[in-house]
Amino acid sequence: MSEILYNEIPSLDLADFTSGDAAKKAAFVNKLGDAYQNIGFVAIKNHGLSQELQDKLYAAIQQFFALEDEVKTKYEKPEIGYQRGYTGKGKEHAKGRNTGDLKEFYHVGQDLSLIPDTDPIKKEYPANVWPSEVPEFQEVALEVYNTIENAGKAMLRAIALHLELDEEYFEDKVAYGNSILRPIHYFPIQNPEEVPEDAVRAAEHGDINLITLLMGASADGLQVLRKDGKWIPITALPDQLVVNVGDMLERHTNKKLKSTIHRVVNPPREKMNSSRYSIPFFMHPRAEMDLTCLADCVDEQHPKAFDDATAGEFLEERLRELGLRK
Ligand SMILES: O=C(O)CCC(=O)C(=O)O
Ligand SMILES: [Fe+2]
């Protein structure tokens, strides 16, 4: 395994993996493996999500976040750890911090009507929450959810091949998984003096889930921490999704695949009064997935670095650390 210091995150074409050309498919898996063992991030095109659909979702969420705070808080569900519906400004903070991030967001989960009644997981998920003020949000969000979920399944097939597992290894683990689509609004700050000095749009963190697929943001600010300590700005092209490894996949692979720390920095002071929007999809498995380190990822040079846990147990622990669960 070569040590690579990327100056930008590698760009890949998902069509190389899905087109049926064996040589292109193998090359995709190799490049993805190099990227995920080094910087933990790639940008992919040909992911199946049209620009039109992305534009529709951005339009709907901008309409929602423009509502008065009193209206938005009607859609807050603290009793389910904010896992569906709205989460208000400053509620979430990165693990190990107390200052809340300068953001508000909205959680969309599985469309329960698509889960067969015979699957016991159907009863475990809370129903989605939809704002009556923006009626088109529901249909657009669910279509985006399902489209990105499919792209995520393809990425997990490629990841499985890189790990020399069966290509279908993740398939049953993510079927009706606990994934979340999270449109985020980094709200304008009129008076920077009024926010805590150390408050940022998103403090440095690793994502909790298996992989994250991120739609192109409306402004700069996202940066990833390279292993030599340098922060690398990420600017996805409009037709790309940024796809990164989360902590669950890092655990399961005993750090072979890297869940790289990233953050969203504040704009310069004179631009603090402008909004930034972004839409990540956090791909989670079913709660029962065993995240125990894969035997093939443990050896003398790589002793087992994590205690055994299921995805559900790990998620609960992290939600408490983020301030979303009491
Ligand atoms: O807003 C972004 O560009 C990234 C957000 C992010 O890292 C997260 O929500 O986990
Ligand atoms: Fe993140």
TrEMBL record:
Family annotation (InterPro entries): DIOX_N, IPNS-like_FE2OG_OXY, IPNS-like_sf, Oxoglu/Fe-dep_dioxygenase_dom
Residue runs in coiled coils: none
Protein name, entry field: Flavonol synthase
Keyword Transferase recorded: no
Keywords of this entry: Iron, Metal-binding, Oxidoreductase
GO MF terms held by the record: metal ion binding; oxidoreductase activity
Organism: Echinicola pacifica
Keyword Isomerase: no
A Pfam family matched in the record: 2OG-FeII_Oxy
Family according to the record: Belongs to the iron/ascorbate-dependent oxidoreductase family.
